[in-house]
Amino acid sequence: MLSTILTKSFSKDTALLLLRVITGTVLIHHGFEKTANIENFADAFVRPLHLPFPIFLSYVAAFSEIGGSWLLIIGLATRFGALAIVGTISVAIYHGVVTSGGFNIYILELLLLYFASAGCITLTGPGIFSLDEVIIRILKSESEDIEVATLTINKKSGNLKVEELKEVKKEGFFRFLQSNLLSETSG
């Protein structure tokens, strides 16, 4: 038990779980604040950058923070959620540099922490304590080869005999889609 807890993989995966959940939990309220007054956010942060469609881009920023945070918290499509956060925070960092007239650590400090957290999650992945890992394990187990043997029992002697040994390939989810839904239909 102690060796399991002290192993590098377990420690790394636990650290990724903490990083994902805390980053998502702390960041999600920023997205909800944006949706509370989207016009105000667009006037204060998007229009000064002279970006087109400020209201639309304000909604994109808000929902990438809300959706990305939820994806980080539950560990589903984690890299996609973290990448959405990295994109939004990159624009916020650019806004902080442009509006403050240069590098102002007091403005950029929190943004850089969010950027670093989401960037690390994007590069390393979610770890084993995530729904992504559960889905990957299910898909891998569906596509593994298994051997099937037919056994017969001789009633008189009680001996077991292997009659037929064959290798069966279980179809995984992607192979099922490929063979049934994605293949060309003839006729």
| Counted beta strands | 2
Percent of sequence in beta strands: 5-15%
Which value, in Å, is the CA radius of gyration?
26 Å
Shape: elongated
Q: Determine the number of helices (DSSP H or I, runs of at least 4 residues).
A: 8
Order of neighbouring strands in the sheet with most strands:
1-2
Structure classification: mainly alpha
Largest sheet: 2 strands, antiparallel
Distance between the termini: 60 Å
Tell me the domain tally.
2
Q: Are there runs of 5+ residues with pLDDT below 50, and where? A: 182-187
The overall pLDDT, averaged over residues, is: 82
SSE ordering: HHHHHHHEEH
Helix content: 55-70%
Task: Explain what this protein looks like in three dimensions.
The chain has 187 residues and is mostly helical. It folds into two domains: 2-137, no CATH class; 143-181, no CATH class. Helices cover 68% and strands 10% of the residues. The chain contains eight helices and two strands, in the order αααααααββα. The protein has a two-stranded antiparallel ribbon with strand order 1-2. Strand 1 (145-153) and strand 2 form a beta hairpin. The chain is elongated. The termini are far apart.
